[in-house]
Amino acid sequence: MTAGAADRRPGRLGVGVVGAGRVGAVLGNALRAAGHPVVGVSAVSQESRDRAEALLPGVPVLDVPEVVRRAELVLLAVPDDALAGLVAGLAETGAWQLGQIVAHTSGRYGTQVLGPAREKGAIPLALHPAMTFTGTSLDLARLVGCPFAVTAPAAVLPIGQALVMEVGGEPTVLDEDARGLYHAALAHGANHLVVLVAQAAQALAAAGVADPGRMLAPLLEAALDGALRAASPGEPLTPGEAPRVGAITALTGPVRRGDAGTVAEHLTVLDAFAARAGAPDVPASYRALARAADARALAAGLLSQDAAARVLDALASRTSHAAAVAGIDPDAGSLHPEGAPDPRPDPDHGADPDDPAPDVTGDGDAPHDQEDPDEGRPRRGPQEDA
Q1: Which CATH number does 3-178 carry?
Q2: What percent of the chain has a predicted confidence (pLDDT) above 90?
Q3: Of 343 and 244, which is predicted with more confidence?
Q4: How is 145-205 classified by DSSP, letter by letter?
Q5: Which terminal CB of the chain, N or C, has fewer other CB atoms within 10 Å?
Q6: 3-state SS, residue 295
Q7: Cβ(140)–Cβ(26) under 8 Å?
Q8: Does residue 4 register a pLDDT over 80?
Q9: Which contacts of 332-341 are long-range, i.e. CB under 8 A and separated by 24 or more positions?
Q10: Nearest in space to 19 (alpha carbons), one of 95, 118, 87
């Protein structure tokens, strides 16, 4: 650690940022603004170096072991798949120090992944911001009120909570064994929301809409706003409002109305579109999500048994002739030929695929860039039916 640490005001920590990606550079900047000096940052790609220069001006760009050597608080903002190897590799080289705080920003992991550092006397923290990062100064304002999942041993949990509050976030304590479900929920909501928008936009473009994004924006933003509000139990009920049963109460459209004829027509035109455009994932997604909507609406008392059964019958029976002629499986979900390798999934907070793996020997530079997959919450007016 730096020799000048004792000269700083109490409670301030020398921060070392490992990974100048979209998350690491922004959180480093926020910690610096809170009074914690940033003593070093690692960066591999030119984009990462430019980001470090923009958000952490004057901070030396160093190799990973040197960043760790100088820091009292090490912020590991690296891809999920690189995290365990990086922590273990640094332990093997003797880089971790007694009493050093080590925090990672992965949503997938708690503090067990930091075990090799903890065995060397380091203090482990898992701090995951549930937000999408652009890697620019725009993110700094969005940190205010941003939820953070905080996992740490009970004795040091207040340290993690304090760090989150210092950057403007709102800490939520999460158990170690809940991290996997937590992260899957965020990825399912945010990442698959993007997929749905992409599918809807493609279909609208095929229908002749010149600007699908503009067409979708008011409806999707209102729908998201309504669902998020319904999913927040802390909001008071308005006079005469029935008790909430969750986000499904914001559901509108043909499934909610039990309009099986419209559902059947949707599948006919979507199957035909899939045959023309080579997009079998669109009707497959429609079927899967309509079944889920039907089941949840029925369980919430929003749909009668008879109406729910009619919708399910329509979903089960409507496979168009166009899809069959084109050889499209209506339950297929891939746009890639059979046997072709799937694209590499984005790790939590994403990585620059052109960057090398994290180097802990000092022969290379830093781990990959990162970005957060989780979108913010747009606020619009009342939800419109669709």
Answers
A1: 3.40.50.720
A2: 73
A3: 244
A4: T-EEEEE--GGGHHHHHHHHHHTT-EEEE--GGGHHHHHHHHHHHHHHHHHHHHHHHHHHH
A5: C
A6: helix
A7: yes
A8: no
A9: 332/280, 332/281, 332/284, 333/280, 333/281, 333/284, 333/285, 334/280, 334/281, 335/278, 335/279, 335/280, 335/281
A10: 87
Strands 38-42 and 15-18: parallel
Q: What is the percent of the chain with per-residue pLDDT over 70, rounded to a whole number? A: 77
Q: What pLDDT shows up at residue 317?
A: 81
Enclosing H/E stretch for 320: none
Angle at 172 between CA 170 and CA 173, to 5 degrees: 145
What's the pTM? 0.77
Task: Express each pLDDT in 12-54 by its tens digit.
Answer: 999 999 999 999 999 999 999 999 999 999 998 999 999 999 9
pLDDT tens figures, 207-231: 999 999 999 999 999 999 999 999 9
DSSP 72: S
- Stated length of the chain: 386
- Is 77:18 a contact under the CB 8 Å cutoff? yes
Which strands make up the sheet holding 123-129, listed edge to edge? 38-42, 15-18, 73-76, 101-104, 123-129, 147-151, 170-173
Non-local (6+) Cβ contacts of 207 within 8 A are none
Helices 157-166 & 22-33 angle (0-180, nearest 10): 90
Residue type, 327: G
Cβ contacts of residue 358 below 8 Å, gap of 6+?
18, 64, 78, 82, 85, 86, 89, 366, 367, 368
pLDDT digits (tens, 9 = 90+) for 287-338: 999 999 999 999 999 999 999 999 999 999 855 443 443 444 544 443 433 3
Which stretches of the chain are DSSP H helices? 22-33, 46-55, 64-70, 80-92, 115-119, 138-142, 157-166, 179-206, 212-230, 254-257, 260-277, 281-299, 305-317, 321-325
What is the reported pLDDT for 198?
97
